Amino acid sequence: MNTFINYYEILHVSQDAPVEIIRLAYKGLAQKYHPDRYQGNDANGKMQLINEALEVLTNENKRKEFDLKLNSFNQRKQKERDFQEYQKRKKYEDFQQQEKNSRNFSKNDDKDQK
Q: I need a labelling partner for 110 at 20 to 30 A (CA). Which of 18, 78, 92, 100 fits?
């Protein structure tokens, strides 16, 4: 499964963060997760992602391209959430309608027996 990596989330900055803030966030995370300091098995992977995020988000052209991909990804995810919500709502409405029909059927059945 191919997952989308959000570089803003990697660096814990907002999408409208200026380059100076991105560099500061990078510096703090690099100090924390540098393999010489951080002893986790994933140190190299974390540092690689942090470096990649800095490279993309501090390059104007790469950042614009990334922002387009991010917006497209977010729109796709929102459509999926909307569809799932629609399905839940539809299922609930169908259930309510079945309950209503069942009650009406029972009332009619009672009338027929009298």
A: 92
